[in-house]
Amino acid sequence: MPDVNIRFAHGQMRERELETIMQDFYHQRFQILVATTIIESGIDVPTANTIIINRADKLGLAQLHQLRGRVGRSHHRAYAYLITPPKRGLSTDAKKRLEAIESLEDLGVGFTLATHDLEIRGAGELLGDDQSGQIQEIGFTLYNELLERAVKALKSGQMPDINAPLHKLTTVDLGSPALIPEDYLPDVHSRLILYKRIASAPDDEALHDLRIEMIDRFGLLPPQVQTLFATTRVKLAAQEIGIHKLDMSATGGRISFDEQPKINPAKIIELIQKRPWEFKLDGQDKLRITKEIEDTDQRVEWLLKLLKEITSE
Length: 313
Hints:
Blueprint: E1 6-9, H1 15-26, E2 32-35, E3 50-54, H2 61-68, E4 79-83, H3 92-103, H4 110-121, H5 133-138, H6 140-155, E5 171-173, H7 188-200, H8 204-218, H9 223-240, E6 243-249, E7 252-257, H10 265-274, E8 279-281, E9 286-289, H11 296-311
Parallel strand pairs: 1-2, 3-4, 5-6
Antiparallel strand pairs: 6-7, 7-9, 8-9
C-alpha cells in the first residue's frame, strides 16, 4: 500500500510522542494505526471505521468489547475483524469468548457481556471448577457475601470491617455434574438468577417449589439440574449440623466437621465399630466413607439418612 501512511503506538513510547500520534490519527494525517491493546479505552476517533484484532483468542471478553468499541463511534458504518487460528487450535474458553462477542451487537449490552464473562471465567462452587482470581480462591457464595457486606458498609458511610467473622459455608460434591446446561436454558442471565435462588433456598420445601417452577417454565429437569438440587438438599442438611465439607462419589467419600458440630459422638463411634468396612476416622475431624453407591439419587438418600443418624440421641 504505497499511498497509505502507517504509524505505530505502544505502551513503551514516551507520553508526548504517543499523544502526538493519537492527535495526528484523530485529524486524519495518516490512515492506518498499528497498536497494542493500549488503545482499548479512552480513544475516541469518530472517523475510524475498521479495526483488525490479531490473535483475538488471546484477549479477554471485556478487552474484545472495548477494542471493538474503538470504531463505529459516529454515523459511519464500522467493521471489526477478529483474527484467530483455526477453531481446532482454540481453547474452550476462547471459543466461548468469541461466540459471546459475536452475539452482542446491540447498544447497552454491558450487563449481558458481564454475565457472559462471569460464566466463562467461573462464578463459584455452583457454576463450575474452572475459575480465576479472588473468586477461585474463596468461591462465588463467599465472594458475594464479602461484596454485599462491603457495599452496605460504604453506603452507611463506614469502612468495611475485614476482621468481622463470616458465616461458615458448607461445600458438597457428589462426584457428578451439578449445573444448569446451556441447552436447557440458553439465557445466561436467567441461569445466574436460578443459581442464586437455588443456593439461597432456606429449606427442602423452598427447593421443591423452585423445582416445580423450573419444570413448569422450562420443561423436565436434565440429570445435571437434578444433581444440582440433590447437592443443595445435602448441603442444607450438612450445614445445619456443622459440616464444613462433604465429598461423596460413587466409590466413597469424606465428611469434614467444624470445630463444634451438632452431632452425637457416640453415634460416630457406633458406626465405626458396627460397620468398619464402611466408616473410618481420618484425623480428629474427618469421617472417611468407603461405601460404594453408583446411583446419585440413592447416594443422596443414603447421605441424608446418615446425617440424621449421627445427630440422633
